[in-house]
Amino acid sequence: MSIKATERSHKFTFMPSQLQPVTDEQELAAIYRRTGVYPYPKAKQEWITQEVKRLQESDEYFDTEQLAKQYDALKADGKL
Question: How is residue 13 annotated by DSSP?
Answer without folding.
Answer: -
